[in-house]
Every structure is written in structure tokens, then in C-alpha cells.
Amino acid sequence: MQEKIGLVGSSVEIKLLKEALEERGLKIHYWKKEEFSQNSFPDDLGLLIYELNKNERDNPSLLENLLKKKNLALLLLTEEISLEKAIDFIRRGARDLKLLNTPLELLEKAVLYLLEERRIITTEDIFLTQDPRLLKILGALEEVAKTKASVLLTGESGTGKELLAKYIHSKSPRKGGPFIAINCAALPETLLESELFGFEKGAFSGANYKKKGKIELADGGTLLLDEITEMGLNLQSKLLRVLQEGEIDRLGGYHPIKVDFRLISTTNRDIEREVQEGRFRSDLFYRINVITVKVPPLRERRGDVKLLAKYFLEKFSLSYQKKFKGFTSQAMQFLENYPFPGNVRELKNMLERAVITCLDEEIDVKHLTDPFSEASLKTEESQSESVSSVLSNTGTNFDNSFEEVKPLDEIEREAIMKALRLTKGHKARAAELLGITVRTLRNKLKEYEERGLLSEGGF
Ligand SMILES: Nc1ncnc2c1ncn2[C@@H]1O[C@H](COP(=O)(O)OP(=O)(O)OP(=O)(O)O)[C@@H](O)[C@H]1O
Predict the structure, then answer these.
(1) How many Cβ atoms sit within 10 Å of the Cβ of residue 425?
(2) Domain that holds residue 393
(3) What are the average pLDDT values for consecutive 10-residue runs of the chain, which has 459 residues?
(4) d(CA 169, CA 142)
(5) How far is the CA of 23 from the centre of ligand 1 (A)?
(6) Mutate to test the pocket of ligand 1, among 345, 350, 436 (most ligand atoms within 8 A of CB)
(7) d(CA 387, CA 365)
(8) What's 455's domain CATH number?
(9) Are residues 204 and 246 in the same domain?
């Protein structure tokens, strides 16, 4: 999606704009003025940011070929221009026109607005990172993407596994094909089977029509099996057969159907342990993990917090049409120290909530913390006190007393127990408060139970 942005120009402003957009993780096709030809550039450009030279500024017909391209949003950047000429450009098909001395921030906004409008950046998040380990992984995955190798993505919930799977698909020769995802934990076994394999009319009572399964729908593209470790042993054997034979049998079908797809699987469980304990077939395990990537939790790549926080702030400001100067220094400090048990998903939810609730110019700690949390339910006067209590509850430590630093998994467990206490054991509400999925919460509780960390009396 991202390569659909082009930029033409040689002025300092254009270069600064290019840098600013790249810092947001956007990929840009860039041409110097003398290198660009109106007649040959990628067909799939959705937005072209184009700097006018003096000749072009005085004579809009010189841009005729660009202006008449229906599917291209053209943003023109220019030095002083007469109102009459500016209107002429817009009439002839330019989408927007800005002066080169417009502040960079506003130029960026105009570009982001058009990207939103063209759905170049709204529908999907761009996988943003500046973490050296993840950048290396992205580079390696670009190579892997060219092959058909199965990829297993492991890592905690909310770390971006599904987004990474989409990244692999977008870099693969199959990118023009479908990307089909199914969450194996979300459906009971029999439903999952019919969703995956499809069925013929009359295959079982209630099958009044023929339905293609997700595997068949992924033909020519990529199939993402989210939470593959939640699949039962019976279905695992069927999946293994598909991978071995390259064909599927619809339920109730007479003939196998050839399928060609790349498999990407994800799990946030210790899959090797699942194999050792007999819950996951070892032969299937070897088939699905030709390449394994462990996506690190957000707390282990603190540099990404700032980058992602700014990105989500921009994204949601655009969606909700609000304007903010940025974060207060306390808010930034909070973000930099908060452990994010729900990873990027939690950060994203936090920023969306902040954008909705903030009526000030800057996002402050009070906007980042959940309005339904215990601390936030206190009165206005005690707000600053409650903010510091939120910080200390989450293990944030602004002095140098090392003995107060707790291991992150302990802080995480305390946060979970507190959420359960506050919601009187209501798992869905607790998960919402924590910014994680109910499934993750269940998995965590199961793990605590196995480790004997749950007290007899409940939370
Ligand atoms: N590096 C990133 N850049 C931008 N957005 C991100 C990034 N990582 C995750 N996100 C966003 O955070 C949310 C959670 O990501 P995603 O669903 O990919 O996580 P996951 O690891 O698959 O979670 P789960 O295991 O719970 O399914 C999504 O909205 C995704 O777009």
C-alpha cells in the first residue's frame, strides 16, 4: 500500500517533507525535477506531491498529462502563485495546492489528509519500528516473502504479529492474491473445521448451500492461522494433510481440490511445550515453522513507544478531526515507563481514548490512564496524586531506589489481579481495562494457576 506515494521536486522544503513522511514509516517514490517524466511512472501511484517550476506555474497546460489522471490525487507545491492560476489548476483536476513556505507540519497534515482520503493509510496500520532487532527481522522477512516458506510468528498478544503477516504478504509475489485470516481460538472445533475446509450442500443438517472454506479462498495468496495452537488434534491432522498434498476436501465433497497458498501461523503460547506435552503434533510443527520469528514485547523495545505514540496520535487526530500540540512531558515520561502488558494494541487503544477524551492542547497523563480505573475515579483535586499513584502502581520509578523496581511479570500479575478485583472477577471488563483480549487474560490466569500463583480465595 505504502509505495503508492510519489514526490517530485528539488527544493529544501520537498526534501524536509520527504524526511518527515519517511520518519512516519511511509515509503515514497522520489524523483528530482529533472528525473521525472509525466509519461512514465508507476501505474499504482495514489498520491503525487509535485513541486511546480516557474514555467509550469504560469502554464497549467504543461501538466495536462498528470492532471487528467483520474486515479491520482495530485498535490501541487508552489512558490507564490496568482489566485486565478491556482483556481485553474484545481479546475483542471489538481486535488490540492499549497505554498512551499507553508509550515512543514501543515504540509504533512495536508499529505496525511489526502492519504486518509485515498485510503492509502487508514485501512491498515503500517508496521512501524525503529528497534534494531525488528528492523533486521523486517529486512530478513522481505527476503523470506519472496519464497513460499511457511512462517511462524510467536510473541505476546498485541505485539503486531498479524500486521507482520500482512507485511510479508504485501512483500510477496502473491500480494495481488487474497490475504485470508482466521482465528483458531475464536471458534468451536466443528465450526472452525467448516470455516477452514468449507462444505458441500447437504454435507450435514443445516448445510443448505455450498460454501468455500478459508483455505480454498486463500488460493493464490496467503492464509493466516492466528492462534494455531488452539486447534484440536483432529483438525491438526487434516491441516497436515493439506500441507502435504496441496489439496483439500470440502466436508461432504467427493473430489479433492488443489490449493496453493503460503501459510503464516501465529501463537502466543510456548509451542515447543505444547508439542512436548502432546497438545500439538510435532510433524505439523515442523511443517509450519520453516521460518520462526519471535516478535519482542513492546516493553523490550522502548524506542518504539515514542514513535508509535506519535503515529497513533496523528492517526486518531485525523480520524476524529482534532488538533493537538503533542504530549506533556509527564505524559511522555509515563509512556516511556509504562510496561504495556497489552503491547502495541494497548498503546493504540490508549491513544484513541486520549484523543477522544482530551479537550486540552496537549495530551496529559490523565488522558492516557483509563477513566474507569480506580485512580481516575477519584475527585479532581486528588488528580495529580492519583496520577503519581498510577505511575507507581505500574512500576514507574522516578527516584533511584533500586529496591523498588519489581520484575515486569510481577507488575503485570499485580495489574491483572487488580483489574479482576475492581471488576469483581468479570473477565471481559478486566481485559478491557487492561487493554488485552479476554483470551490473553485467560491464558495468563491459566499460567498463574499452573505456577501456583493464584490464591485460594480468588483475586
Ligand atoms: N509496529 C506497529 N506499527 C503500527 N501498528 C501496530 C504495530 N504493531 C501492532 N500494531 C497495531 O496494534 C494492533 C495489534 O496488532 P496485531 O493484531 O497485529 O497483534 P497480534 O500480535 O496479532 O495480537 P493477538 O496475538 O492478540 O492476535 C493492531 O491494530 C495493529 O495494527
Answers:
(1) 12
(2) 301-403
(3) 77 89 81 89 87 92 88 90 89 90 84 74 70 92 93 94 92 88 87 89 75 90 94 94 92 87 94 94 94 95 93 84 90 94 94 90 90 47 38 38 65 84 74 79 83 63
(4) 10
(5) 19
(6) 345
(7) 7
(8) 1.10.10.60
(9) yes
